[in-house]
Amino acid sequence: MPSNPPVRFDPSVETIASDEQETLQGLKDSFQDILETTSQDYGHAVRSVHAKAHGIARGTFTIADNLPSELAQGIFATPGAHEAIIRISTNAGDILDDSISLPRGLALKILDVDGARLPGSEGDTTQDFIMVNGPAFAAPDAKSFAKSLKLLSKTTDRFEGVKKAMSATFRVVESALEAVGARSTTLSRLGGAKPVHPLGETYYSQTPFRHGDYIAKVALFPVSPGITRLTGDTVNVSARPDALREVVGEEMIEHGGTWEFRVQLNTDLDSMPIEDASAVWDEEQSPFVTVATLEIPPQLSWEHGVTDRTDDALSYSIWHGITAHQPLGGVNRARKETYKQSADFRGQFNGCPMHEPAKLSEIA
Asked: What is the pTM of this model?
């Protein structure tokens, strides 16, 4: 547990920039560029970020008993088991060859949760968490996020050969940095990420959220031997455009996996800022503490012609959830309308309107 008492949530912890709406419009314009480009090229709409899925799997999310009061908040206030479904992905907005190595993502949807709902998700009973295999967001704020996305939108679904070459070069540079104890978030985001096995990674929310009366970041840590043995392993992606889907499928059907869902409480607003999404919160100051377990039994995680339809029918957003887990900070506020924009576009273009499932049996 943290050495200092956790900070209590108050609306004043957020600072809204005077030009936030202008920044949001810029993000929406970039998202629209990506969506229109990819849908025209593929004849099918895909997500504007994290377009390529490497696996979708169903399991059980079990909230622990007897949590301390500061952890027993929101959905974690009531012990018990919930159905859940995960989606493993890569962060680009186009469908790229896996040799273009980018950060991994994991989206978690927990079903049948109680509580007052966030605006836009009234009537639903799901709680989504979207995580990436790194503790810090690539941009400190929404304005920086908008600038980088605008640049990336201009290369969407173009210059794949150049991207492959750049990715190989950036991986060499990134490996050299890691050898001396450094990392470059920018290089990773541009294709220099190591081609690590998605199932061995720890996934972080990167941005802060309400944790009931408090404030926290969350993360998903692999714990079962079948997947912890994959931590740090790299995948041979040479001449294998869907290598990650293949290796995830092999492990999922053989072992499944177990992860611990952990919470890192905010104990100091100065050293653990709300509005700087690029800031890593010190784990010595406030460690991640387990509040739930995700169990995924062995299963087929991708079947062509079947899982594709499941992927089309699902949408994930950090704003699908309850008020007690309200996303905080400018980057999270910017993600509300843009993620809805992406889901609405896909639903309209593909003729498959989005709806939140009440139980797993509703998902194809």
From this structure: 0.90
